[in-house]
Each structure stands twice: as C-alpha cells, then as structure tokens.
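To: structure subgroup
Subject: Chain for Friday's discussion

All,

I'm putting the inputs and outputs inline so they're searchable in the archive.
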Amino acid sequence: MRGDGRKVNTGVLILVALLGLVLGSFYNVCIYRLPKGESVLWPPSHCPKCGRHLTPVELVPVVGHLILKGRCRGCRAPIGVQYPLVELLAMGLALLAFHQYGLTGAALRLLLLGSLVLVTAVVDLRHQVIPNALVVVGLVLAVILQVVFPDLSWSRVLLGFAVGGGFLALVAVVTRGGMGGGDVKFGAVLGFLVGWPHVVPALLIAFVSGAAAGIVLMALKLKSRKDFVPFGPFLGLGAVVAFLWGRELITWYLGCFLP
C-alpha cells in the first residue's frame, strides 16, 4: 500500500529498492572522495588501501560486501560496515519517498533532501566538515527540481532559504564561530528544500536534538564542553522530520497557545 492508501505493483517496489541501493553505492563514493577534493566520477571504484579496481561482483550493493566478508579480495584490508549501511539507508529512503508520495515531484524532493542529509551527515561525523561541492550540487539540483516540479511556491522556497541560512549566520556571528560556515550554507539549502514555514520546526528540532546529544555525550564523559560536536546531522534530522510532519508540528504547537 502507498501513503495515500492505493495498492502498488510489487515490481515497482523492487525497482525503487534497487534504485535506492545503486544510489547508496554512489553516495559511498561521494562520502569517501568529496572531503579529499577528488572526482566522484574518475578513477573507477577501487580499494583505498591497495588501489585495486573492484570487479562488477564486488560493486553489487550490500551483496558484494557479504560475498567478500567485509574484506578486500586483494589485500584483505577490512571494508567498513558504513558501506552496506549507507546503501540500505538509501534504499529505505527511496522506498519511504515512494510510499509517501508515489512517482511525484514531492517524492523526488524528499529523495534529494534525504540523500543530501545522508551524505552530509556521514561526512560531517567523520571529518567535521561539510564540503562546498556537496552544498553547491545540492542547491543546483534543488533549483532544477523546483523549476520542473514547482509543488512549493517560489516565495516559500526562497523564504525558507533565507531563514535557514540567515538564522544560522546570525548564530555564527553571535557565538563568534560557534556555528561553522558549512552549517550555514547547508541550512540554507535545507531551507530551500523544506520551504517556509517548515524551516522553523526544522531549525527547532535541530537545536533541541543537538543540545540533547551534547548533554548525553558530556554525561557519558565522551565529550567536554569545549569539544566540537558536528551540527550537520542534527540539521538534517530536523529538515527530514519537518518535511514529513512539519504541518502537523506547526498545528500542534499553535494549538498549545491559541484557543
């Protein structure tokens, strides 16, 4: 069943799942190469340890990792669990977008949003940086999608862009560097994708979840007050939740204060 209650063909679901797995494999390439400033198109996929080019079987998402038992066939270097995990998450994202919105522009918007969040979150957690290339490509694709499928008005997406980036830029100024430039740019792109007024709960969820995570990490003595905690994953979490349930969250919040 789809989000609107209509039945869907099993074959279509399989195709959507396979698309998600393939996208996830590409996302792993982006996660590994973008922080190094390398091309995501060339050279072909290879072992980062010995440089051996991967065979077609090794490139099959998830299955290749299982066949190789998590090790390079050539040098036997371990292959991190991140690779199949990202592929499975991308598959879940594709299925979620299709389930919620079918074959529509809204589904593509959610798929782009989730994909950008997934790649950015992993890169930010591993390297504490959000590459400019990732933000620029995300914005270009978001603008193209808006032109082809204007399911949100231009005023809403532009206001979302301004509020998402502008508010975080203000935080960066007030905290004197407490907010990175990458977070500001990333927040602007996310604001463009979720639009106004959904960008408001997106930012609220990001700050609340980020603060909660920081408190837990300090309580467990894994971080101190002076340690840096990547904010990109929390921005992404807020954007995805706001995209899916932003209207309900806003209605609930206003209902708490208005008769």
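Points worth raising on Friday:
Residues 111-259 form one domain.
Residues 205 and 238 are 5 Å apart (CA to CA).

D.
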